[in-house]
Amino acid sequence: MGVAVLCGVFYAGVGRNSPKKRTTAEPVPRQSIPSHEEGVYNTVAMELRGAVVILFALFYSSSLSVVHTFQMKSIYCTISDSCDCDFKPDVRGLEWDLYRNLYGQHLAQEVVSEAVGDFIRKENPDRPLVLSFHGASGTGKTLVSSMVGRHLYGTAMSSPYVHQFIPTLHFPLSDQVQQYKMELRRWVEGNLTRCARSVFIFDEMEKMAPGVIDVLIPFLGPDYVLFQTNYRKAIYIFISTAGEEIINDLTLKTRLAGQEREDIRLQDLEASISQAVFNNRNSGFYQSQIIAEKLITFFVPFLPLNRHHVERCARRELCQRGECHRTDVVEAVGGAVNYTPQDGQHFSSTGCKSIPAKVNLFL
Question: Does domain 91-302 have CATH number 3.40.50.300?
Answer without folding.
Answer: yes
